[in-house]
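My main concern about presentation is that the manuscript never shows what a single data entry looks like. An entry of this sort, consisting of the sequence and the corresponding backbone structure tokens, reads as follows:
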Amino acid sequence: MKQISYTKSAIKALRRMPASTAMLIRSKIEAYATDPASQANNVKSLKGREGIRLRVGDWRVIMDDQGNVLAVLDIGRRGGIYD
């Protein structure tokens, strides 16, 4: 399993959303860290910038998967996260 690190903006986004949604997003991130193939249909590499995105319903998680650390860079709604 990879170590997961969150940026300040990702933690702030998790605190602002409903608790049930935050728990779902965290469980999907942990599932990806344990076995990336389990989330293969929800993960794509980003175009025009470094990183990958994990789709969780209407929410998007921008991550950087390098080595043993999975860095969660940002979390947001589908429309505005890529700006």
The first strand starts at residue 3 and ends at 6. Helices lie at 8-16, 19-34. Strands lie at 3-6, 43-45, 52-56, 59-66, 69-77. The chain has a mean pLDDT of 92.
